[in-house]
Amino acid sequence: MSTGAAILIAAITLVVLLLSGLYIHSMLLAVGIVGIMSLGKTALLSGLLSYTTFTTVATYSMTTIPLYVLCAQLILEAGVVEDLFNILYNTSHGKKGVLGTFCMILGAFLGAVCGSGTATSAALGQAAYPQLVKRGYKSDLAATVSASAGSLAGVIPPSVTIIVYGIATETPIGRMFVASLIPGILTTVVFIFCTLFFLRRDQKAGGEAEAFAPVHVERKSAVVSITVALVIAVTIFGGIYSGFMTATEAGAVSATVAFLCALALGKVTKDFLIRAARSTVNVTAMVMMIIIGAKIFGKFMSLSKISDAFVEALGPLMSYPKVILAILVAVYFVLFMLMEGTAVIVMTTPVLLPVMNAMGVDLLWFGIIVCFCCVIGQLTPPVGVCVYSVCGVAGIPVEGPFKLSMIFALVAAVVVGGLMILFPQVVTFLPSMML
Question: Which of 100-104, 205-209, 316-320 has the highest mean pLDDT?
Answer without folding.
Answer: 100-104
